[in-house]
């Protein structure tokens, strides 16, 4: 066996350990009885620490050291371009992992598994004080993590790099500023518009079982392979994967909000297509892994927003939806429905936000995360900071911490640096779809015909199967011919909502 | 930390790895999408092999070698009686595991995970030929396993010892012969009886959702803690545990067989009470583990047969069942229902068999397993041998392999030696319940009052929490004052069915 093959085999072991961890998370969020939480945290910590041990242990380090300089990451001479890329990316993961003591990895896993359970209770009981000590512990662990990994431009950049390799907070600030400059006036103009989008249509009583059926039908049409996946319900929708042949999603349906469940189903479906489209031949190696969290979000948000909030999609699906809910929709023309689902209105909850104000939710979180990580803002000050910023960014003040600082799961699993990737996904996906429409000139017609897999196939070839052969910025430049800016996204938003709200 | 504490901590790690394996099995049988099977087999093999590595590795061997002679299992001087018992039992597991090469453990895990999936398909398609090559491979692995472990009285005894420590096939033969001598005439007399038990009452159309509700209510009454457990559906009911705080069961409901689902629910509930009753303080050590498969079966079958096929149970539950299914049961008096659920009739499927003929199904399997293991009977001959024996033991010949040799999952996971423990459970549970009734003189009245937890509490104290502080035979002797015979069970059967069938 060649050294590279040997390395690939070892990485497959690491990936199987990580897949086991993922199964435990999936179970924890779907079916685990509540009493099992403490034992689960212990199990998770064990397997996470074994995965870490294996990744930084001799059996990886040995072959890797023959392929790359372990100190600098420079690939050895004599490797092909592709091999160089591969080993450089493997080294990236190895190097990051090797900086962390195993005891730390274990403590983080156990703490965050427990904290997620406490967070869920705290949110339900609207009790930030209950969650605060866990969050404080996690924040202290993040400080230690940054110490181990080494500070980049700022401490926060170190964490960001774990989600969006190569991205900096300076670059995000630039992109967000560019976005904000046009987004804030746009949202203000929409607020001043006299157009009534009849959002109440979406808030009628929609049978959950029928919502489920409709969502499953869309997933199948998108090309989500249910032989290698499944959908369940959970408090917080997510996608999780153990292997490209087992990629699962969850959703959360609400009787009085038709789009909450459907959007989440399609969003997670977009993530799942990415995972199912990874090359199983390269399972466990960077070439079989998604590029970044931002590119992942570009895939989910492309389907959720650019496709499923657009007219061609509903040309096909609206008659079907009407047939399912005649009592609510029979008398609602498609044009009215289209306006209703595209209502822009500042709201408290990120996951329920429209595609315009959504980005303000992210900017707020980005600001606050930097304060916590770079400026060591005490955790107990988070609720008031959150509420103040909500008021200044969105003009509304949360009525409770459950609808404010406690709404998102991310901090409970230590995911500081994750949020910005959602907005990056919005910025990535517009130029990606523009390129797809250049290649598939009749894409809108195909979608209006219910042929969603045409797009899935294009994304599989140009994004999913690429793996980490390219970075996010390389992918975007290769597909669009230019570096990432906020312009395509803002052009899209302005055009769409100028028409919708007759601005 | 004392050496014993150190050892306990390491065994907890092994148990957490085994709990992870168990979760993967649970998922495989309940929710895993079919395409994920091959990746799952690889993951399972990995974690099984890690669990094995850890159990036989330095971190266990080191402390263990200071507490026990690793060659002979003799505990070191200076240990208390309890400590001696503990380390002897730890050594038993260690010694058995250490005999197996890790590569073998991995191959067995991967092969059996795949084989279980193939078996399920083969049974569905009634295609023994499809399963045969997998079974052949498993049988060859079992031969290797016996070679590694060392042959006891017979090769089959080596496997038996893994399920029922200390039990021999000679002893089982003696017990089964003793049983057969009275069971065969009893079954013949029943067949000749003119009493009509109106079995068709059970085969009316019973709504599945209501069956589920009823089963869940019984489980709760039994004291199955649903904060630390859950019930799902699966093709083959089972109990699985990751920790005493997370013990799950599955059931399989049939519209036209009320007792199939209810019996399986109560059966698995009995297993689950055992696992929930283990002492979490000793998690991972023999004192926190069940005594044997036979004792485990005694707990499931005690609830399934001795309680839930008896009159006091139905005094409480029958009015409730009638209220749930008035269309089927309103006009059926309790005495008639009692006869219907206690119908004895030779049938093809073990899990659907009545409590009398059930044991003949086991004897047949015991005979055949010995032929496969001791006499190397070729796998391809199994279907005809099976059918011939069914005819001679039960007087009926399977119409298909699906209803014959393919009906049970056990061989697909390599469980040769497992079946006899079901019949041992029947033999154990009668004297155990007799003893419980001595201690709780009004037990029947309590049960007739729906107070099932009285029995659960007694079993917890006298059986569940004991762990492996006693062997099966020690437990039975301690509780009943005498060694195990088939007499109490046969006395019970004869008395019950003489009345029922007016023999």
Briefly characterize the structure.
2 copies of one chain form a homodimer. In chain A, 63% of the residues lie in helices and 3% in strands. Chain A is mainly alpha-helical.
Q: Percent range for helical residues of chain A?
A: 55-70%
Describe the oligomeric state of these chains in a short phrase: homodimer
The total number of structural domains of chain A is 2
Estimate what percentage of residues of chain A fall within beta strands: under 5%
Instruction: Using the CA coordinates, give the radius of gyration of chain A.
Output: 23 Å
* Global geometry of chain A: globular
By helix and strand content of chain A, what is the structural category?
A: mainly alpha
Text of the CATH class of the largest domain in chain A: Mainly Alpha
Indicate the CATH topology of the largest domain in chain A: Neurolysin, domain 3
Strand order of the largest sheet of chain A: 1-3-2
Number of DSSP-assigned strands of chain A? 3
Main pleated sheet of chain A: 3 strands, mixed
């Amino acid at each position: 066996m060649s050294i590279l093959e040997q390395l690939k085999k070892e990485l497959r072991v690491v990936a199987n350990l990580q897949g086991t961890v993922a199964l435990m998370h999936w179970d924890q969020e779907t079916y685990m009885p509540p009493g099992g939480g403490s034992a689960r945290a212990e199990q998770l910590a064990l397997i996470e620490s074994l995965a870490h041990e294996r990744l930084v242990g001799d059996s990886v380090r040995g072959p890797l050291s023959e392929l790359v300089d372990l100190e600098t990451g420079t690939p050895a001479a004599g490797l092909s371009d592709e091999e160089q890329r591969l080993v450089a990316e493997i080294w990236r993961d190895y190097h990051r992992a090797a900086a962390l003591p195993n005891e730390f990895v274990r403590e983080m896993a156990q703490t965050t598994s427990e904290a997620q359970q406490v967070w869920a209770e705290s949110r339900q009981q609207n009790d930030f004080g209950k969650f605060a000590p866990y969050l404080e512990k996690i924040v202290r662990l993040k400080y230690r993590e940054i110490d181990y990994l080494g500070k980049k431009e700022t401490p926060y950049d170190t964490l960001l790099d774990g989600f969006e390799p190569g991205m900096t907070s300076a670059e995000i600030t630039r992109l967000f500023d560019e976005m904000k400059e046009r987004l804030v006036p746009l949202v203000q103009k929409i607020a001043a518009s006299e157009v009534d989008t009849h959002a109440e249509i979406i808030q009628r009583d929609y049978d959950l079982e029928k919502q489920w059926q409709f969502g499953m039908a869309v997933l199948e049409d998108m090309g989500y392979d249910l032989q290698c996946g499944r959908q369940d319900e959970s408090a917080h929708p997510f996608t999780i994967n153990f292997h490209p042949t087992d990629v699962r999603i969850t959703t959360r349906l609400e009787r009085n909000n038709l789009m909450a469940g459907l959007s989440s189903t399609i969003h997670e479906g977009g993530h799942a297509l990415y995972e199912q489209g990874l090359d199983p031949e390269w399972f466990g190696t960077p070439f079989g892994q998604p590029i970044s969290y931002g590119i992942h979000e570009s895939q989910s948000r492309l389907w959720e927003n650019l496709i499923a909030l657009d007219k061609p999609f509903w040309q096909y699906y609206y008659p079907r939806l009407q047939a399912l809910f005649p009592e609510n929709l029979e008398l609602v023309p498609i044009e009215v429905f289209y306006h209703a689902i595209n209502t822009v209105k500042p709201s408290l909850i990120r996951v329920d936000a429209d595609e315009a104000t959504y980005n303000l939710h992210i900017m707020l979180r980005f600001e606050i995360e930097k304060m916590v990580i770079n400026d060591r803002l005490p955790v107990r000050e988070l609720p008031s900071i959150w509420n103040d910023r909500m008021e200044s960014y969105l003009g509304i003040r949360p009525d409770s911490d459950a609808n404010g600082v406690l709404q998102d799961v991310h901090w409970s699993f230590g995911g500081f640096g994750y949020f910005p990737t959602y907005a990056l996904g919005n910025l990535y996906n517009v130029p990606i779809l523009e390129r797809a429409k250049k290649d598939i000139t009749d894409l809108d017609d195909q979608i209006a015909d219910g042929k969603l897999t045409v797009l899935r196939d294009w994304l599989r070839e140009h994004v999913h199967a690429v793996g980490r052969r390219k970075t996010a910025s390389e992918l975007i430049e290769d597909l669009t011919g230019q570096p990432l800016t906020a312009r395509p996204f803002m052009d899209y938003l302005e055009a769409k909502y100028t028409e919708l709200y007759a601005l």
